């Protein structure tokens, strides 16, 4: 007769191993999806950079707003609407991205938001960071297009006010430069009253007399790493599946042996 505790242990082992197989396979599939996503991002970057540069104007067709495509825009800076994007690090140094709109057409208030570059964070107690002056008059800016301002994970203080929220209207009170974590284009357009193109231009002009760093980070595209992780998870799942079969086979063997012993005279 089978011992009850032995049967319970066998069932528990089969259940745990079965759950492990399901979880490990799911992790492998998730890594494959991440690999596909990064492969698609890499393809989009390469495709955008292969296209001919485009001039951004109020009449630019929407089909020309291809992410990672080189673009130029000519207009006047609107520094009163500048915004600092906080928690943007460069080579391990904390700092900001400076975002300023470039007015393309004054009559229609058509503009494009430009990420002008990175500047270091000031030490606590030293006041607000000093922004480089925006050149006056018509300016031609070269950069790469993005669908939106790259987002950062936002941490909200419990029970505290949101210090990183974009003011309802710009320019901000007392002439302070808003510091935000993220900058949605629709909210920024409402605050400034500008008609923004549905793209963001990351400035790449080689000259940096303004002191801004224009070394923009690229999304992670090392899909080979995710594929390698997927292979590892599937290997662990195979080991767990083999162990499940071994436990099941041992249980069946013991049941047959006990059945044979019970049938002897």
From TrEMBL:
InterPro entries with a match to the protein in the record: Surf1/Shy1, Surf1/Surf4
Membrane topology: Multi-pass membrane protein
Keywords: Cell membrane, Membrane, Transmembrane, Transmembrane helix
Keyword hit for Transmembrane helix: yes
Subcellular location: Cell membrane; Membrane
Transmembrane parts of this sequence: 233-252
Family classification: Belongs to the SURF1 family.
Protein's UniProt name: SURF1-like protein
């Amino acid at each position: 007769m089978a011992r009850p505790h032995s049967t319970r242990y066998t069932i528990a082992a089969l259940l745990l191993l079965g759950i492990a197989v399901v979880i490990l396979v799911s992790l492998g599939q998730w890594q494959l999806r991440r690999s596909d996503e990064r492969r698609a991002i890499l393809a989009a970057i390469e495709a955008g950079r292969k296209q001919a540069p485009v001039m951004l104007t109020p009449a630019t067709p929407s089909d020309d707003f291809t992410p990672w495509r080189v673009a130029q825009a000519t207009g006047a800076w609107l520094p009163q609407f500048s915004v600092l994007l906080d928690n943007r690090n460069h080579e391990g140094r904390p700092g900001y991205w400076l975002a300023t709109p470039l007015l393309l057409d004054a009559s229609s208030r058509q503009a494009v938001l430009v990420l002008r570059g990175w500047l270091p964070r000031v030490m606590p107690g030293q006041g607000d960071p000093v922004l480089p002056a925006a050149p006056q008059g018509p300016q031609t800016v070269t950069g790469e297009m993005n669908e939106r301002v790259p987002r950062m994970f936002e941490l909200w203080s419990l029970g505290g006010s949101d210090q990183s929220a974009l003011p309802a209207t710009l320019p901000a009170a007392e002439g302070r430069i808003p510091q935000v974590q993220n900058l949605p284009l629709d909210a920024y357009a409402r605050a400034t009253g500008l008609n923004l193109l549905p793209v963001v231009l990351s400035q790449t002009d080689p000259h940096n007399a303004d002191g801004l760093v224009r070394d923009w980070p690229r999304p992670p595209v090392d899909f080979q790493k995710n594929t390698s992780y997927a292979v590892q998870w599937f290997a662990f799942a195979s080991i767990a599946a083999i162990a499940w079969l071994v436990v099941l086979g041992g249980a069946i063997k013991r049941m047959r042996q006990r059945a044979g012993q019970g049938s002897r005279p």
